Amino acid sequence: MAFVGPIARLVQQLGKLPGIGEKTAARLAFHILRAPAEDAAALAASIAEVKQKIRFCGTCCDLTDRDPCAICADARRDDGLICVVAQPQDVVAVERAGGFRGRYHVLHGLLSPLDGIGPDDLRVAELVRRCTGAIQEVILATSPSVEGEATAVYLAKLVRPLGVKTTRIATGVPMGGELEYADQVTLARAIDGRREI
User: Fold this and answer.
1) Is 5-53 in CATH node 1.10.8.420?
2) CB environment 140-175: b (16+ within 10 A), e (fewer)
3) pTM assigned to the model
4) pLDDT at 68 over 80
């Protein structure tokens, strides 16, 4: 059954969101339709606001509504330590974990030659520029996927010659995980990355 014009357009637009199929888009559309008018207006206004006000931080390339972002403006952070992540949501994950008090650099993707994504499509040049200053260590915190590893290796080859210590986040068995359920690569990395206690 076809939806009426405005509903069909809403379903079509919601269906463009990642992970949202046609049925979920229809459920969301009908939820919005049943919601009070002020809730629907607030949703529309927040979408418009995020598109108007959010931009890249001129220092770390994270998404922000002010430049520099709150983390780059925080004088209590360690200026000599940069954690390189693929996406803005990775900054949120590291911050949520707590303990890291350095700065960030967001690449906005990973190298993926098969998808046509090369170094010029990422915020690599900005990272290299930052490494010519007082940076002492760059932590490469990309995912342990093929693209994440390739990106980390590429960045290490660019940064290391600048005299900056380059490290990679550890990978291995997660807290609360069982060894019998770990795959071979994960278990091998956990053993390779062991440390003294």
Assistant:
1) yes
2) bbbbeeebbbebbebbbebbeeeebebebbebbeee
3) 0.86
4) yes
